[in-house]
Amino acid sequence: MDPINKPSIDELDREETARLTLDFFHRLVIHHALWFAEVRHQFGPDKALEVLSEVLPRTMGIQSKRVAKALGISHDGTAPHPLARLPEESLKALRDAVAVNWLANDGVWFQAVEFSRDMNDAKRCNDTCWSRFSPFEAWSVKRFLGLPAEAGLEGLKQALGFRLYACINAQSFHEESDGSFVFRMDECRVQSARRRKGLDDYPCKSGGLVEFTSFAEAVDPRIRTECIGCPPDPPPDGSVCSWRFSLVTAEETPPHP
């Protein structure tokens, strides 16, 4: 498209219209995120999630129905029929592709900051992002599964199985006692890629401490997180990283000063 003699929006060819439509989707996502970020800034994270719980079903319903209508496809009130009626294998492949796209997007952002600034700034942005995304993902999973406010260790196990990472990495659970369990990331897509290239493991412990601690506490504020090992630590028990989650009883909780 000539950058000087630009056609009007209705004069674009099919390729440019398709590209513009994808750009519209991107603007929608950013605008949605900016609204959430501003409500969080103005009223705090709890109120922001409370407002989001009202916004999300309304906006998803409006958007999916309107897109279905524009494409001339049926909609059952939950999802467009062509999506909901995909063969199971295709639907799972799409689910996993979306999860991997999330990870790829994360990597693109990290590298953009790293190359324009430095590794320290990229890690700082990364850890701050996790401190906000991880509680949000826990909220999303709890909402999807219908978990209670204090879901306990069993609820945490369920929630960890519904993270985006559950469709990307190999993970496992190992019982220790009635009051704790160990979660292991047995394979990590990021670290595996680095090892194939002959690179050292990415030192993700600082981000992991934020990620897993905030996720577990958002599932149940009584849960405590301990890092058994995470890069740059030596691989624990043959896994890439390993985490212990325990439930603190009322008797073990220190009193407020």
Structural features, described:
This protein is of the alpha+beta class and about 260 residues long. It folds into 2 domains: about 1-85, no CATH class; about 130-255, Muramoyl-pentapeptide Carboxypeptidase, domain 2. Helices cover about 60% and strands about 10% of the residues. It has 8 helices and 4 strands, in the order ααααααββααββ. The chain has helices at about 15-45, 45-70, 80-85, 90-115, 120-145, 150-160, 190-195, 205-220, and strands at about 170-175, 180-185, 225-230, 240-245. The protein has a 4-stranded antiparallel sheet with strand order 1-2-4-3. Strand 1 (about 170-175) and strand 2 form a beta hairpin. The longest helix has 30 residues, at about 15-45. The model has no long low-confidence stretch (mean pLDDT about 90).
